[in-house]
Amino acid sequence: MRHSSLSSFLDRQQGSTGGGPLVLVLAEDEVELDSTLTHQLKCGFRHVVLLAPDGVQIAEGLEDRVHVVRHDVFAEGALVAAVNQAIAALPGTWLHYCHNAEYLFFPFCETRTVGEMLAFHAEERREAMLTYVVDLYAGDLGAAPNAVSTSDAWLDRSGYYALARKDPANEWQPKERQLDFFGGLRWRFEEHIPFGKRRIDRISLFRAKPGVTLLPDFTLSEPEMNTYACQWHHNLTAAVCSFRTAKALRTNPGSRHAIPTFRWPNSVQFTWNSQQLMDLGLMEPGQWF
Length: 289
Hints:
By secondary structure, the chain is of the alpha/beta class. The chain has helices at residues 6-13, 33-43, 78-89, 114-123, 185-188, 244-251, 253-256, 274-279; strands spanning 2-3, 22-26, 47-52, 67-70, 94-99, 102-105, 128-135, 137-138, 153-156, 161-164, 179-182, 201-207, 238-242, 267-269.
């Protein structure tokens, strides 16, 4: 299913998405594009929307299951702008956003759908969910020069930390139940990462609300939607397992030759299941049993 623009797709979907959930996948290239779309469909998203430039191809078996929307993916802030367009058009719909070669995992996702998980989250009076971006990287850069390999994917098992999120309106009081999270490749190779792009937290699962917008730092304009938990107990969190940083570090000439390998003593092979991520403390099941 192909659409000439995001506006055209959203005009057709208004009032018909049934609350979603809907995922926007922005593809700057075709690296692991099919596996990304297949993963989102497996998660149970009702609508999988691919934002891509002309010429991007997907597997024949995905053509009838994915909305392919022509989009200027290289425009400044292209993903944020697209998400905000969807928020304005589809109030009440649960949205997720990501790039190609990024894979959403949530607790027990092997046996439960994203819709079931979000229904539970909504019952806890939550309208958004914190997701951690967990960097994936190929174990053998000789075999995978762009650092992307789903069959030989590795991640860091330690080296993650959080800092209190400062409140510009009150320098002595940090924001309540909000933290800035760091770790992974953006921490280990921070000399190659701009300061403003080193955080690994995103609010990438949320219910669209009138007047709420996604900000360039991947937080929302409503403070409560940026919190990691409610006031009375821990809530679910999820993870976006992403090759994006590794691929960028291997593509950028300034860092490519400075990094012979991403593996270090605290690397562990990714087993592509939610239990490993929970065991490593990279997402929280909360009361979701």
